[in-house]
UniProtKB/TrEMBL annotation:
<dbReference type="InterPro" id="IPR023772">
    <property type="entry name" value="DNA-bd_HTH_TetR-type_CS"/>
</dbReference>
<feature type="DNA-binding region" description="H-T-H motif">
    <location>
        <begin position="44"/>
        <end position="63"/>
    </location>
</feature>
<keyword id="KW-0804">Transcription</keyword>
<dbReference type="Pfam" id="PF17754">
    <property type="entry name" value="TetR_C_14"/>
</dbReference>
<feature type="domain" description="HTH tetR-type">
    <location>
        <begin position="21"/>
        <end position="81"/>
    </location>
</feature>
<dbReference type="GO" id="GO:0000976">
    <property type="term" value="F:transcription cis-regulatory region binding"/>
</dbReference>
<dbReference type="InterPro" id="IPR050109">
    <property type="entry name" value="HTH-type_TetR-like_transc_reg"/>
</dbReference>
<dbReference type="InterPro" id="IPR009057">
    <property type="entry name" value="Homeodomain-like_sf"/>
</dbReference>
<keyword id="KW-0805">Transcription regulation</keyword>
<dbReference type="InterPro" id="IPR001647">
    <property type="entry name" value="HTH_TetR"/>
</dbReference>
<keyword id="KW-0238">DNA-binding</keyword>
<dbReference type="Pfam" id="PF00440">
    <property type="entry name" value="TetR_N"/>
</dbReference>
<dbReference type="InterPro" id="IPR041347">
    <property type="entry name" value="MftR_C"/>
</dbReference>
<protein>
    <submittedName>
        <fullName>TetR family transcriptional regulator</fullName>
    </submittedName>
</protein>
<feature type="region of interest" description="Disordered">
    <location>
        <begin position="1"/>
        <end position="20"/>
    </location>
</feature>
<dbReference type="GO" id="GO:0003700">
    <property type="term" value="F:DNA-binding transcription factor activity"/>
</dbReference>
């Protein structure tokens, strides 16, 4: 006679998930601090795990390698952007919807929503680290291309288009991603920028988007 199974206690399941999330966030935060202090190449997985007082084996339960933990914050921001974009009002045109979604992402980061470094300034510091580390930059650009495909698919669904036939969704997704990256680079390179200011970052993104129309269709003379 089979022994009846007992359903897991939802409260205990929730507690385990919160504990796992705290461990994951602690690993991301420790990796971020060590990367910024010692450099990506000189930081080891053992050092990251030691900072959180867990084993190397525990680290690999959450991340496949250093690259994955370094990109974890941006990966979560990218996933959040897709969700925000899907939820934008149907009456917005594609560019308006994407601008609104990226604004929501940065506001969420500034409120500390997401894993790892829990503030806008920390996320911006991480972006600067990625830009200055060839290995991470190459991985980030690969992820960005994958993100463009997903953004194009969402735009096509919103507008009732076939992205295999209509070039506009993929083209706009690529242009949008480039504008956002240029905004980040401009912020990082400007010594007079409002450092560690999320308002300054958002204002710079909006300024870049305001110039997109004139750059594409306006006279440059």
């Amino acid at each position: 006679m089979a022994t009846p199974t007992t359903a897991a206690d939802p409260q205990s399941v929730g507690l385990r998930e919160r504990k796992k999330r705290r461990t994951r966030d602690a690993l991301v935060d420790a990796a971020h601090r060590l990367f910024l202090c010692h450099g990506y190449g000189r930081t080891t997985v053992d050092e990251i795990a030691s900072e959180v007082e867990v084993s190397q084996r525990t680290f690999f339960r959450y991340f496949a390698n250093k690259e994955e933990v370094a990109l974890a914050v941006l990966a979560e921001a990218e996933a959040a952007f897709l969700e925000f974009l899907r939820a934008r009002p149907a009456e917005e045109n594609p560019l308006e919807a994407m601008r609104g979604a990226v604004r929501e992402v940065w506001q969420a980061v500034d409120r500390g929503q997401g894993g790892g470094p829990d503030s806008g300034p920390a996320a911006l510091e991480l972006f600067e680290l990625i830009e200055s580390t060839p290995t991470l930059l190459a991985a980030h650009l690969r992820h960005s291309i994958q993100q463009e495909v997903e953004v194009a698919r969402i735009l096509a669904d919103r507008e009732g288009l076939d992205p295999a036939v209509d070039l506009r969704p993929r083209l706009l997704a690529a242009v949008f991603g480039t504008v956002v990256r240029l905004s980040h680079l401009s912020y990082a390179a400007d010594p007079d920028a409002h450092r560690h200011s999320m308002d300054g970052m958002l204002a710079l993104i909006e300024r870049h988007f305001d110039q997109l129309g004139p750059a594409l269709a306006g006279s440059w003379r």
